[in-house]
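re: ur question from yesterday

yeah so i grabbed the chain u mentioned. its 292 aa long if i counted rite. heres the sequnce exactly as i have it in my notes:
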Amino acid sequence: MSYEGWIILTASLVGLSCGIMGVFLILRRMAMMADAISHTVLLGIVSAYLITKELSGIYMLIGAIIAGLLTALLVQWFHSLGVQQDASIGVVFTTLFALGVILIATKVGNVHLDVQHALMGEITFVPWHTIELPLLGEIPQATFTLILVLLVVLVVILAFYKEWKITTFDAALAASIGIPVIGMHYLFMTLVSITTVASFDAVGAIMVVAMLITPAAAAYLWTDRLLVMLSLSASFGVISAIGGYYIAVWLDTSISGSMAFATGIIFLISFIGSPTHGLLSRFVKPFTTQSM
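ran it thru and got these structure tokens back, copy pasting raw so excuse formatting
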């Protein structure tokens, strides 16, 4: 595959995974948790490096997952003590992210763990960091990791689809019929953390947040059916990845930033043109009703 192809494929995998997880974040009214976890995983990555002195491998993933779960636990704890959820998220993610930045500045030294890389990512470097696999041959490491993450997300979502649906729309009903609501919540937070950290190094925090929230928000405007919403959100993520790449080439600018911008364009089109919740439909419906 060409250099360009690997970049588009990697970004599309991010769009697919984040698009699917983003639907549940939107429906559970936890959109800001995406922003929180995408930033606090930096603390997990830095901590894993300080312990292992390795810049890649399973330890980075474990550290980031722990940081994501710690974020969810602290937010839930503060909320249970009476702090508003949005305030809890703001306090926890800024504090943990700041701690990660301080550790980078004081402990990491010249190692390539910088805030600019964390925010914007280095998707242009993805095709150069490869691994050799049986049957598949040489493949970028980030691409292979994202393929595995997408498979995990799909398997877990499909295996517990009914449980996800009930706990998302009616947690009280789910608890009354014996579904472990708290367990499902933290399993979901684990999936969000895994998806975030797998995307983090390649595309950066800005694109991770954009891909987690904006395609799902756009899909929400088009349909009220969960399965259709999941499909639309994943599709919008892929379209944003492809369209954003060519916008970046056209403007000679940041690829990740352009892909995030493309998600905004898709949302704007959906906000205006959706036949059910779009801006135009609100003006058309009164005239249609009067003519009838």
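noticed a couple things. Residues 79 and 85 are 5 Å apart (CA to CA). also The chain is about 80% helix and 5% strand.
anyway ttyl
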